[in-house]
Amino acid sequence: MLKPPISRVDATIRSIVVSVLKKDMVPRFLHWIFLLALFFCLYSCKKGNPTPNSQIIGTWTWVETLEGNNILVDRSSGIEKRLIFSANDMLSITHNDSTGNDVVLLVLSPYVIKPDSVTNIATYQLTSQPAFPCDPDKLPFLVIQNFGSYQYEVVGDSLMISVSPCLAPVISIYVKNS
């Protein structure tokens, strides 16, 4: 069986390994440490894969907010909130509610219905980060300039947004417009 040709990088690495291993002045155990370190450097480094944002791009309309399994606020409240995620990392948030806090993507109680809708425009970024202190695993987060970060999940045509998975999370659910 023919072996595929090696790349210049592989050839350079092989020549470095051979030259280090041929030196008599280096104790034998250092050879193994060097090889082990080289192995970890080459095979443990992963190229950063950006979180794909194709699922989130589009227009989303808020339908309800849950606290655990209980509906906290729904459409019958008169609240209207629409999110438009663009491919160039811009987010438009149009809403007629005011909860009196900085949580823009969540619809919380108590709320005030504004006479006119307000539109906020900001840049967004999708990342993965730990949700300390309750969950050290990396979870998908939506980071919005000047509006904070939110844990998010897209399932089918539903977008679920929460501030944190800790304790009993409050989750606002949006549905994708066709």
SSE layout and pairing:
Layout: H1 8-22, H2 28-44, E1 58-67, E2 70-74, E3 81-85, E4 90-98, E5 112-131, E6 135-144, E7 148-155, E8 158-162, E9 170-176
Antiparallel strand pairs: 1-2, 1-3, 1-9, 3-4, 4-5, 5-6, 6-7, 7-8, 8-9
Write up what this structure looks like.
This protein has 178 residues and is an alpha+beta fold. It has two domains: 8-44, no CATH class; 58-176, Beta Barrel (Lipocalin). The chain is built from two helices and nine strands, in the order H-H-E-E-E-E-E-E-E-E-E. An eight-stranded antiparallel β-barrel has the order 1-3-4-5-6-7-8-9. A hairpin with a 7-residue loop joins strand 8 (158-162) and strand 9 (170-176). It is elongated. The termini are far apart. Residues 45-51 have low confidence and may be disordered.
Structure described in brief:
The chain is of the alpha+beta class. The protein has helices spanning about 10-20, 30-45, and strands spanning about 60-65, 70-75, 80-85, 90-100, 110-130, 135-145, 150-155, 160, 170-175.
